[in-house]
Amino acid sequence: MTGFGNGTRRNPRSRGRMGSGSGPDRATLGIIGLVCAIAGFFTLGIILGPIAVICGWLSMGRRWTGSRRAMAVVALVLGAIDTLAAVMWTFF
Question: Would you place residue 9 in the very low, low, confident or very high pLDDT band (cuts 50, 70, 90)?
Answer without folding.
Answer: low
